[in-house]
Amino acid sequence: MSTKDILKKSFLESITSADVTPQEIFLILLITTVLALYIFFIYRVLTRKTFYSKTFNISLAALALITAGIILTIQSSIVVSLGMVGALSIVRFRTAIKDPMDLVFLFWSISVGIICGARLYVIAVILSVFVTIVIFALDKMPVAKAPKILVVNAQSLEAEDDILDIVEGYSTYYRVKSRNLSADQLDMVVELRVKDEKALIGEIHDLKDVHAVSLLAHDGEVTF
pTM of the full predicted structure? Predict the structure, then answer.
């Protein structure tokens, strides 16, 4: 056997496999499943009911398990890992992320799968606990109060001054977002912060030129 064959054999033996017993595989996937269910539960509790997607939540749990399996496969053989890298490089995801928090949970799920696949279970558990604490603490922190949306239907453009005078008396902040004037009707949308909502809409409704008034809440961006 030549020196070249000896070196080739030694290299192949060094990268062929790192033995992973079935018991270790079962333990890794079991711990990953527990953490995946934990992420599933946290996402369900934290996400607003209006935007909750059960299929996306299930995919978070499945993604952690799949990632752990990929990491186990990569650890078992460098040759296989190189082929897997090439295969995964052709995958393209086109699903749009509607909520930035969904991106956080996606990365959290993938990270748990990677860490558990590397058999660093303690890090995965501690990471999940700290991420949960930070997310809930920041979510409960009062940063700013979202303004209300006032929608007024009036008979003519002359009613706008009376409406804004009342709004100014009840609100600390207001801004006219839109005006829509048709042949015999004015539609106004005003963004405002108000404490006594009932008194505000009652006084505006009592104006002789006002047909209808609505005060809406929204979960969009907060104006500082």
Answer: 0.63
